[in-house]
Amino acid sequence: MQQIKSQFGRTMMEMLAVLAIIAVVTVSAIAGLDQAMSKFRISKTHDDILSINQGIVELYAWKRRYPATDIAEMCRNNVFPDGCLGVNNDMPRNIYGGDYMVETDAINQTITIRLNGLPSDACRALSSDDMDWGEYLVEGDNNPSCSSNGSVFEIVFY
Questions:
Q1: How far apart, in Å, are the Cα atoms of 100 and each of 28, 30, 69, 131?
Q2: What CATH fold (topology level) applies to the domain 12-157?
Q3: In sequence order, what are the beta bridge partners of 145?
Q4: CA pair distance 97, 26, nearest whole angstrom
Q5: Which of 37, 46, 47, 155 could cross-link with 144 by S-S, CB 3.0 to 4.6 Å?
Q6: What's the predicted TM-score (pTM) here?
Q7: What distances in angstroms separate CA 59 from CA 35, 65, 138, one per listed residue?
Q8: Within its chain, how far is the Cα of 120 from the centroid?
Q9: 134: Cβ contacts below 8 Å, ≥ 6 apart
């Protein structure tokens, strides 16, 4: 009489089912990570803009008015949170790889901060009513605003 050994292991169908479950979980995690990174970039851009505004106010506080915009001076005084690039270290970049442009208005005592190179969804999120820009935001219908193609964001502060 022959004795049959019991065999342990998984069938091919069971292995395929496990792989399918792993694939679904992986795809869900990647989609969630992309959404979280997008929210992080928008939040960081918001915080950077507020920091730049505060840095400009502090830089020129002793002059009691905003002089003509001098990006190189702002870079030398670390107004931009992520620093500046370029040969002369005078090209501030935002988290999306675009430029910051800053204009000061000595007559109206305002600061305009413009960001280039934003994805349209980030521009729309930054210009939405959900963003808290603080008490120094110049009130107006188009402040903050996005360009028609959604790649340029502009905001004006006192």
A1: 34, 30, 12, 19
A2: TcpA-like pilin (3.30.1690)
A3: 154
A4: 29
A5: 155
A6: 0.77
A7: 36, 11, 20
A8: 12
A9: 50
CA distances, 33 to each of 12, 51, 93, 96, 116 (Å): 32, 26, 24, 17, 25
Structural tokens at position 39: 């929210």
- Bridge partners (DSSP) of residue 74 are none
Half-sphere exposure of 47 (CA within 13 A, CB side): 9
DSSP assigned state of 5: P
Cα distances (Å, whole numbers) of residue 85 to 70, 71, 97, 113, 131: 15, 12, 11, 18, 28
Tens of each residue's pLDDT in the chain, 158 residues: 566 666 666 788 888 999 999 999 998 888 888 889 999 999 999 999 999 999 888 888 877 777 777 888 888 888 888 888 765 666 888 899 888 888 888 777 888 999 999 999 999 999 988 889 988 888 877 889 999 888 899 999 98
- Kindly state the helix (H) or strand (E) to which residue 23 belongs, with its residue range: helix 12-60
The token pair at 94 is 């935002």
